[in-house]
């Protein structure tokens, strides 16, 4: 997808940068793979607002995505590349030879008419899902499982990718997009290639209204609130009423919230890079 800049015909257009939808082949989703998407508006079961800055937005329907890719040995043809309002990446509609239809997160370079398959002996080709034990070292991958059969939970957002670094016994070493290097069981599945829509992060909305379309309400700075509304509220003028912390009083700068005894620590070889 390419980037498109706009002429400043209105204040909202002046700084707007949008992506073109060259790769999208249809605007009509597969009806059998749609589900309702309930929204809370930031309210709990009694109607009280418990999360701020959520509400409104355009109505969406959820596209049921196959993150497990568990139709092993059955090839599928890419029928369409579609926009998904629920995620940053594009999705691809697969037509399996047995007649079933499923959505998958579309990797960069996947086109209509291409064939994909999930199998241990599958060729190293964009869109194919293979266990980490069978993928050559150095390969760029995405949609990675953490437990066999769990379904992909790592590297699913637009433009992201990981790299298979090494294998040792029953574990593979994978370098994630954050810079973290961790061990994952070689029996876990991963998909070849990087996620589509890498230009997503370069978009500039141009106006506040576009955030409202996405269900985001205005966010007010903590230091200008009253002490009753936030731990950092109060004070005189620009003088802050407290130390940097979130609404629940947890310190925001330098305070580690990760459990020191977290079981998955033993799988992390190198922590993610700090900003």
Explain the overall architecture.
There is one protein chain. With 275 residues, this protein is mainly β. It has a single domain, classed as OB fold (Dihydrolipoamide Acetyltransferase, E2P). It is built from two helices and 15 strands. The protein has helices at 11-14, 208-213; strands at residues 3-5, 17-19, 34-36, 61-63, 76-82, 91-96, 101-105, 115-116, 129-131, 140-142, 162-168, 171-175, 181-185, 189-192, 268-270. The longest helix is centred in the C-terminal third of the chain and has 6 residues, at 208-213. It is globular, with a radius of gyration of 22 Å.
CATH fold title: OB fold (Dihydrolipoamide Acetyltransferase, E2P)
Overall helicity? under 10%
The second-level CATH architecture is: Beta Barrel
Q: Rg to the nearest angstrom?
A: 22 Å
Tally of separate domains: 1
Model regions low in confidence, pLDDT < 50 over at least 5 residues: none
Instruction: Tell me what portion of residues adopts beta-strand conformation.
Output: 15-25%
Mean pLDDT: 94
Task: Report the span from N to C terminus.
Answer: 28 Å
The CATH class turns out to be Mainly Beta
Strand element count: 15
Supply the number of helical segments: 2
Task: Please write the string of helix (H) and strand (E) elements.
Answer: EHEEEEEEEEEEEEEHE
Q: What does the overall shape look like?
A: globular
Q: How is the biggest beta sheet arranged?
A: 7 strands, antiparallel
Going by helix content, strand content and strand pairing, the class is mainly beta
**Order of neighbouring strands in the sheet with most strands:** 9-14-10-11-12-13-15
Give the full name of the CATH homologous superfamily: Nucleic acid-binding proteins
């Amino acid at each position: 997808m390419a980037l498109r800049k706009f002429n400043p015909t209105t204040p909202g257009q002046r700084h707007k940068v949008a992506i073109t939808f060259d790769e999208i082949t249809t605007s009509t989703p597969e009806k059998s793979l749609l589900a309702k998407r309930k929204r809370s508006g930031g309210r709990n079961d009694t109607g009280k607002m418990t999360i701020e800055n959520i509400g409104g937005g355009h109505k969406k329907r959820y596209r049921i995505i196959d993150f497990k890719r568990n139709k092993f040995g059955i090839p599928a043809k890419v029928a369409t590349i579609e926009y998904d309002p629920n995620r940053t990446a594009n999705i691809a509609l697969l037509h399996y030879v047995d007649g079933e239809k499923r959505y998958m997160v579309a990797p960069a370079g996947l086109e209509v008419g291409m064939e994909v398959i999930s199998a241990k002996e599958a060729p190293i080709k964009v869109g194919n899902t293979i266990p980490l034990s069978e993928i050559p070292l150095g390969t760029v991958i995405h949609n990675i499982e953490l437990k066999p059969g769990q379904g992909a939970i790592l590297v699913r957002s637009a433009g992201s990718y990981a790299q298979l670094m090494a294998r040792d016994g029953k574990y593979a070493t994978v370098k994630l997009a954050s810079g973290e290097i961790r061990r994952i069981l070689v029996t876990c599945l991963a998909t070849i290639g990087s996620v589509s829509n890498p230009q997503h992060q370069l978009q500039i909305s141009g106006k506040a209204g576009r955030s409202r379309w996405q269900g985001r309400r205005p966010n007010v700075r903590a230091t200008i609130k009253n002490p009753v509304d936030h731990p950092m509220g109060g004070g005189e003028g620009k003088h802050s009423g407290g130390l940097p912390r979130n609404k629940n009083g947890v310190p925001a700068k330098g305070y580690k919230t990760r459990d020191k005894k977290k079981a998955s620590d033993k799988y992390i070889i190198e922590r993610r890079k700090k900003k």
